[in-house]
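Narrative of activities, Objective 1.

The group set out to show that a structural description can be obtained from nothing but a protein's sequence at a throughput compatible with the screening campaign. Below is one input-output pair from the validation batch, recorded exactly as produced.
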Amino acid sequence: MTYGANEMQSRASARRSGPLAGALVALALALGGCNSVGGGDASLLGAALPEPDSARASGGQAQNEYRISPNDTIEVNVYQVPNLSRTVQVDGAGRISLPLIGAVLAAGRTVNELEGDVTRRYGARYLQSPQISVFLKESVGRQITVDGAVKKPGVYMLKGRTSLLQALALAEGINDVGDVSTVTLSRTADRKRVSARYDVASIRAGQTPDPQVYGGDTITVDESAARHGLQALKAAVPAVIQVGTKVIP
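Output recorded for this entry:
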């Protein structure tokens, strides 16, 4: 089939503008529709969530007074006696097993309480003035999940009192398509799953309180449809420039 010069020029122009036109359409649709993908009920925006059941069960203990639970991993270091140092997991009965002193109850205690008990046991029969340090290396009860449009989604362990912004920082922040106005914090309270949405930009500006995050919480960052369109536009522009430099038959 033979085309005239004008028709061939029109077809080439359409091909060159195709990627950009598609991106512009995607951006227009995004801006004309909802602001985010997967957003929750707007009435929950900024709502204060109750404390989780896990915090109430421990008597409202602050997170730096976390009480050890079964399946937690404990690191016990005995100064200048490396053969007695151990990394152990709390068993189903809430105990850990250490050299010489045997089984020690760990569950239900704080790290400081366990450290004091282990020190007393070693000092009573085996060591003179023992210097022992106990660390909580890994804890199911202090893990949170950060999911959605963040740079490194995953499960993270809290270390002391942690806010929503600090928890997002553990996942290296919100990614290029994340919606900073639609961050959902979910937890189990009163034996049911509850959640609230937060505007991170508002928190950063000091206009909204930065809520505390507890072990067992899930943080989900929605994707912004407008940011998706903008990313598509950015990707399309180099393609248009590259195509424009070639001769299209």
